[in-house]
Amino acid sequence: MKKLLPILLSFILITPHASAIEGVYEVIIRKQQEKKASRWTLADWLMTKQKMALMDQWLALNSSSTWFEFLLEGSGNKLTADNTPESRLPYEAQAYRYQAAMYIKAFGLQGGKDKVSGFQDSSFYQANLILLGSSAQSTNIQLHYGLRNLNLVEGKVSPSYWGASATLYLLPFLGALYDHRKYGDDSEGTLSLREGSRQEVGGFIDVWFLRLKGTYFKERLKLNTTASGDYDQQVSGWWAGAQLFF
């Protein structure tokens, strides 16, 4: 019993000191973690500087003092078209296209009409969103969603579509264009559109507010009629036209 008493007394005296030491240790570790979290190195500074430079560059490329933009376009030429399902013989037809667009900052509304004589007549309405770029008359990437009213020899369909386009300036006055649409299905009466797409690629020259452009156009529609069954219709060729920017 006499031997156990000193041991018990020592334990009672040491225990509070051990708890205090453990508390001090936790405080020291917590402080070290806070210091480490707020510490910066030369590598961190250089990386932050690079990120800020990239952000400034992005803002410079995609910021504009122009709130409102308006454009008009007229194009025309002879395009090659597949005839009605009965003959399926390609032929050259005179084609025309007129369209206009209005932008408020990155959001735009666009509409137009195109006609391939003796083959199809259509109009479209679409909403535009500039994802990258300061305006429609600059290097940009856009998304589109719209509706097309298409009148064919066999009937009429009105499919909706998604699209994307890109404009790339190679020189201050010279650039390239690309436009893509993907049509959904639609049916009216005896005519059905199963699927379709169109692509347009080309180049342009800017002279102040005037843009002269030439693009290669190709559209393919997969159709069905109760009388003829499934068939494809295609239109392709070069558009030559001009745009006016305001």
Secondary-structure class:
alpha+beta
| Strand order in the sheet with the most strands | 1-2-3-4-5-7-8-10-11-12
Q: What distance lies between the first and last C-alpha atoms, to the nearest angstrom?
A: 104 Å
Major sheet description: 10 strands, antiparallel, barrel
Radius of gyration: 33 Å
Strand residues, percent:
over 45%
User: Can you tell me the residue ranges where pLDDT is under 50 for at least 5 consecutive residues?
Assistant: none
**Please, how many helices?**
2
Structural write-up:
The protein has 246 residues and is α+β, with helices and mostly antiparallel strands. The protein contains 2 helices and 12 strands, in the order ααββββββββββββ. It has helices spanning 4-38, 42-62; strands at 68-82, 90-104, 107-116, 120-132, 140-152, 156-157, 160-171, 174-183, 186-188, 191-207, 210-225, 229-245. The chain has a 10-stranded antiparallel barrel.
Name some characteristics of this structure.
single chain; 246 residues; alpha+beta; 10-stranded antiparallel barrel; 23% helix; 58% strand
